[in-house]
Amino acid sequence: MLISESYREQNKQLHELRHDYGASAHKHAAQVRELCELINTKSVLDYGCGKGTLGDALDFPIGQYDPAFVDLCSEPAPHDVVCCLDVLEHIEPECLDAVLADLARVTKKVIFATIATRPAVKTLPDGRNAHLIQENLTFWLPKLWEHFTLMSVNNVGNQELIVIAGPANLGT
Predict the structure, then answer these.
(1) Rounded mean pLDDT of 52-64?
(2) Where are the domains of the chain?
(3) Per-residue pLDDT, 102
(4) CA 116, CA 67: separation in Å to the nearest integer?
């Protein structure tokens, strides 16, 4: 299970209430464009795309997946580049392993992820902090290693991780 129905509803409500929830991925568009140029592809999936600002900021079409939106919750196909920007900290802890496995399934060449390690400013309609997982590098590294070959991990001010990784079988 990637998301529970009750949590899907919480996210749906927060997206409706807050125009700024799920709307920050565009700030990584230059990095995504650079990564695509580096590996010569335009096959990109925005996994947990929220309001789709990454797709709006790029000059080519990308795939979008977000289980909080009915029109974006179909199982995504694999893509060369998967972007998972400010998403993993929002996953229900009991669903994290399934989500990481699904991310591995859809990643052909590279995953680019940002993971906040601090509390969110926003709260869910039920009062919980929007960052359900507030863990540091020592929590995330083993989780990521299970599914990916890590290429680069940057711990930005002990507040955010920026991760570039390939499929787990990259070196074989």
Answers:
(1) 97
(2) 5-167
(3) 98
(4) 20
Non-local CB neighbours of 79 within 8 Å, separated by 6+ positions: 43, 44, 45, 63, 106, 107, 108
CB-based contact 126:10 (threshold 8 Å): yes
Q: What was the pLDDT predicted at 156?
A: 95
Q: Does domain 5-167 correspond to CATH entry 3.40.50.150? A: yes
pLDDT in tens, 143-155: 999 999 999 999 9
CB contact set of 24 (below 8 Å; sequence gap of 6+) = 50, 53, 85, 86
The gap from C-alpha 121 to its chain's centroid, in whole angstroms, comes to 18
d(CA 145, CA 143): 6
Mean pLDDT of 117-121: 96
The whole-angstrom separation of Cα 169 and Cα 147 is 9
**82-95 pLDDT tens trace:** 999 999 999 999 99
